[in-house]
């Protein structure tokens, strides 16, 4: 297992994703002799996980079962322990494409936070790219280093424990792309420019508030960035389900013959002749209406 | 400094490069060829001059369509009028505020006046301009700039640019797949270097190109194609280095059933040939025979063509007299040469089919991406069989209903988890001091996605009832 390479069998030391149904997942560190409690019962790592194939169904002690999945950055995003507010897959997808990330890209990121975006970046830039990520919170920086090691992606990433607004990214003239998710991104725009390649590159800043966007855009323009664009992307989930709708009873229809009336009755309406079943989707009762504004810009050649 | 020169080499525009022209939000992908004129935004331009310049350079279109690199980008200051009104209570639309006529403007253009100068003239001759508010003036200038602008920027193609270009220019060709939806597909599909990905698309090759870019030449992509051959116009736009094509394989969708049943004979070229050969005759001799037959068939074709052009040949014969015999000999030689080429081509095609089949046979692909105008249900159910367990798949459709059907079928069939039917909503913002708001116009729809993850289907256990705790949980969450 690695977050950047698929393997077939679950091995000791892997991080496996246990799928408990209904988009509920938890991450498990696989260890000989260890046990994991789920609401369906206990999973014994030595017998239930190690040597099994990823994607297999594991029957737990209470007779319930779970699926064990190979880790991906997307599954990690929904399973990871939150130490901060994180970026979710919808925004991550947009950031990855609009920053033009691909194998070999050198990326600067700040703050590292819980590492949700970091894992997605590492997946995309492997095997030849590199991520320089800056986190000013010492405990978070240490924790994320540990995770990168566990996930076997540490060779692709350098974590620096410093203040990006004061000290920058710790590298100059190397980055193809910079991502900022900090409270005052406008203070880091200069450092971002310095970190980027002489030939240019792409920048993205994620901010929840429009005032932050305003100041960032201004700073970007002042520093000579071009193509400054702000956008927002929202995920809409459609729940697929059958819906039964009642048909009103208009009473006996004298104008049409009785045989025609029975023909028109829907076939699915056998138990209750006055209803119609359709397959449709319903929106969730509540959905995230705002995550953050994404501001993108191009650094021209300097 | 010598090193600096080397640094720049890969950023320089070269002849034969695939590039993207940009003006404002309009893009166009072209290949650079000497003396070739291209039309962009109603203007003919000649690309010869851009060779040797750096990517992202902005050029000015001179007369005759030749391009000159733009000197300085700071021409904004030329129009600094600092008299402005506060509101529009005294501005009356009488249609006479602009004193320059259409002809005047045309003459200015013919005189070769710079666009900034034309705009300044328009401002000077507008009686209402000074009464407009500062913001309205700004808007006026921006609008005129857009109209009289004659610059073009040359960009290196990337997935972002090509996806935006296709969505802007030819959404019908890519099933109205919006670029943010494509971005979701690549991420939900966990497309990355080193994996083995199946792609089925009828989006002009845009989706295939996007997948290839994300894989960076590592791993393999198998394009499943309908009809006679794969469409890759969009892939060309990316201008990938040659080695990227080594990872690209193709497999005709009409052979999927045979491959799944284990009856695919990779020696055969087309489905009819499979019937001829039968399943037992897989020996090299049979293949050879088939190849020869096909080559002979091809031989007949050019002969027929040649007969049509026979008057010319005859004339030549009478003219040159003695060369007739030689000519015939040459013809024979050509024919043999062509037959040989055909044979080589056929051999190549067979080799490719065998290679793709070998990749698929293990049924251990790492990802599946579908985006086509075909009904996605049959495509998905057919191709998902090639995936390893615990691998993501993603299906795009312009219509939600088709994906509802896919969802239902997958639920019935089992073997998947984390099924999600989604779409994304994209909103652009104008961010200006005191004038920040969402753009007035946004895209109505960028299509829908069904994504999920494969899991092992256990044949040992019967498709038993869900265990009690789980059933309870499902009921709880639904209620």
TrEMBL record, chain A:
Residues 252-275 have a biased composition (Low complexity). InterPro entries: SAM-dependent_MTases_sf (IPR029063), TRM61_C (IPR049470), tRNA_MeTrfase_Gcd14 (IPR014816). Transmembrane segments: none annotated. Keywords: Acetylation, Methyltransferase, Nucleus, S-adenosyl-L-methionine, Transferase, tRNA processing. S-adenosyl-L-methionine binds at residues 114-117, 135, 163, 181. Residues 64-299 form the tRNA (adenine(58)-N(1))-methyltransferase catalytic subunit TRM61 C-terminal domain. Residues 246-302 are annotated as: Disordered. One of its GO terms (molecular function) is tRNA (adenine(58)-N1)-methyltransferase activity. It is found in: Nucleus. It holds the Pfam family GCD14. GO terms for cellular component: nucleus; tRNA (m1A) methyltransferase complex. It catalyses: adenosine(58) in tRNA + S-adenosyl-L-methionine = N(1)-methyladenosine(58) in tRNA + S-adenosyl-L-homocysteine + H(+); an adenosine in mRNA + S-adenosyl-L-methionine = an N(1)-methyladenosine in mRNA + S-adenosyl-L-homocysteine + H(+). It comes from the Eukaryota. Its main location: nucleus. One of its GO terms (biological process) is tRNA methylation. Its EC number is 2.1.1.220. PROSITE patterns: SAM_TRM61. Belongs to the class I-like SAM-binding methyltransferase superfamily. TRM61 family. Catalytic subunit of tRNA (adenine-N(1)-)-methyltransferase, which catalyzes the formation of N(1)-methyladenine at position 58 (m1A58) in initiator methionyl-tRNA. Catalytic subunit of mRNA N(1)-methyltransferase complex, which mediates methylation of adenosine residues at the N(1) position of a small subset of mRNAs: N(1) methylation takes place in tRNA T-loop-like structures of mRNAs and is only present at low stoichiometries. Heterotetramer; composed of two copies of TRMT6 and two copies of TRMT61A. This is tRNA (adenine(58)-N(1))-methyltransferase catalytic subunit TRMT61A.
TrEMBL record, chain B:
GO terms for cellular component: nucleus; tRNA (m1A) methyltransferase complex. Keywords: Nucleus, tRNA processing. One of its GO terms (biological process) is tRNA methylation. Residues 303-317, 325-344 have a biased composition (Basic and acidic residues). Heterotetramer. Substrate-binding subunit of tRNA (adenine-N1-)-methyltransferase, which catalyzes the formation of N1-methyladenine at position 58 (m1A58) in initiator methionyl-tRNA. This is tRNA (adenine(58)-N(1))-methyltransferase non-catalytic subunit TRM6.
């Amino acid at each position: 297992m690695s977050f950047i390479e698929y393997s077939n069998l679950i091995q000791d030391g892997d991080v496996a994703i246990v799928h408990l149904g209904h988009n509920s997942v938890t991450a498990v560190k696989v260890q000989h002799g260890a046990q994991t409690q789920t609401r369906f019962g206990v999973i014994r790592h030595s017998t239930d996980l190690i040597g099994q194939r990823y994607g297999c169904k594991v029957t737990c002690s209470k007779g319930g079962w779970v699926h064990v999945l190979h880790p991906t950055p997307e599954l990690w995003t929904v399973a990871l322990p939150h130490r901060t507010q994180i970026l979710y897959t919808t925004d991550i997808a947009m950031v990855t494409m609009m920053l033009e990330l691909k194998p070999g890209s050198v990326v600067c990121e700040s703050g590292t936070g819980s590492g949700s975006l970091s894992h997605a970046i590492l997946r995309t830039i492997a095997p030849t790219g590199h991520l320089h990520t800056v986190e000013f919170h010492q405990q978070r920086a240490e924790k994320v280093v540990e995770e990168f090691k566990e996930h076997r992606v540490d060779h692709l990433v350098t974590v620096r424990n410093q203040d990006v607004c004061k000290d920058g990214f710790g590298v100059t003239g190397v980055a193809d792309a910079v991502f900022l998710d900090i409270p005052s991104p406008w203070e880091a725009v200069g450092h971002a420019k310095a970190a980027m390649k002489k030939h240019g590159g792409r920048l993205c800043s994620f901010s929840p508030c429009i005032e932050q966007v305003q100041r960032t855009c201004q700073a970007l323009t002042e520093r000579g960035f071009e193509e400054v664009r702000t956008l927002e992307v929202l995920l809409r989930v459609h729940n697929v389900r059958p819906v039964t709708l009642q048909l009103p009873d208009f009473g006996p229809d004298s104008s049409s013959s009785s045989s025609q009336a029975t023909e028109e009755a829907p076939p699915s309406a056998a138990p209750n002749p006055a209803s119609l079943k359709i397959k449709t989707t319903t929106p969730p009762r509540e959905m995230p209406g705002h995550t953050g504004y994404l501001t993108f810009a191009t650094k021209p050649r300097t | 400094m010598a090193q600096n020169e080397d640094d720049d080499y890969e950023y320089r525009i070269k002849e034969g490069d695939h590039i993207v022209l940009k003006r404002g939000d309009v893009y166009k992908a072209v290949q650079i060829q000497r003396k070739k004129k291209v039309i962009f935004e109603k203007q003919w331009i000649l690309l010869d001059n851009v060779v040797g310049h750096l990517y992202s350079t902005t050029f000015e279109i001179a007369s005759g369509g030749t391009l000159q690199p733009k000197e300085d980008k700071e021409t904004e200051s030329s129009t600094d009028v600092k008299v402005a009104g506060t509101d529009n209570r005294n501005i009356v639309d009488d249609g006479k505020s602009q004193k320059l006529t259409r002809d005047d403007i045309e003459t200015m253009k013919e005189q070769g006046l710079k666009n900034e100068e034309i705009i300044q003239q328009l401002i000077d001759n507008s009686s209402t301009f000074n009464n407009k508010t500062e913001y309205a003036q700004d808007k006026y200038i921006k609008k005129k700039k857009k109209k009289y602008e004659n610059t073009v920027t040359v960009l290196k193609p990337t997935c972002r640019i090509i996806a935006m270009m296709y969505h802007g220019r030819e959404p019908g060709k890519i099933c109205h797949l919006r670029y943010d939806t494509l971005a979701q597909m690549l991420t939900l599909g966990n497309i990355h270097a080193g994996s083995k990905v199946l792609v089925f698309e009828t989006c002009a090759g845009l989706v295939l190109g996007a997948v290839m870019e994300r894989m960076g030449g590592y791993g393999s992509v198998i394009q499943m194609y309908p009809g006679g051959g794969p469409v890759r116009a969009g892939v060309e736009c990316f201008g990938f280095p040659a080695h990227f094509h080594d990872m690209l394989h193709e497999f005709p969708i009409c052979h999927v059933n045979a491959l799944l049943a284990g009856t695919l004979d990779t020696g055969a070229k087309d489905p009819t040939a499979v019937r001829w050969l039968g399943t037992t005759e897989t020996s090299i001799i049979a293949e050879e025979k088939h190849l020869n037959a096909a080559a002979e068939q091809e031989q007949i074709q050019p002969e027929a063509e040649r007969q049509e052009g026979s008057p010319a040949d005859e004339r030549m014969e009478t003219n040159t007299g003695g060369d007739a015999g030689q000519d015939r000999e040459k013809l024979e030689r050509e024919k043999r040469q062509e037959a040989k080429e055909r044979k080589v081509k056929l051999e190549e095609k067979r080799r490719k089919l065998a290679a793709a089949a070998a990749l698929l046979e293990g049924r251990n692909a790492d990802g599946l991406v579908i985006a086509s105008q075909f009904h996605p249900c049959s495509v998905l159910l057919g191709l998902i069989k090639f995936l390893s367990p615990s691998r993501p798949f993603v299906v795009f459709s312009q219509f939600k209903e088709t994906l509802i059907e896919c969802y239902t079928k997958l639920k019935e069939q089992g073997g998947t988890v984390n099924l999600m039917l989604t779409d994304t909503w994209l909103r652009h913002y104008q961010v200006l001091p005191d004038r920040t708001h969402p753009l007035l116009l946004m895209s109505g729809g960028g299509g829908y996605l069904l994504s999920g993850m494969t899991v092992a289907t256990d044949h040992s256990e019967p498709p038993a009832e869900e265990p009690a705790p789980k059933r309870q949980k499902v009921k709880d969450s639904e209620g």
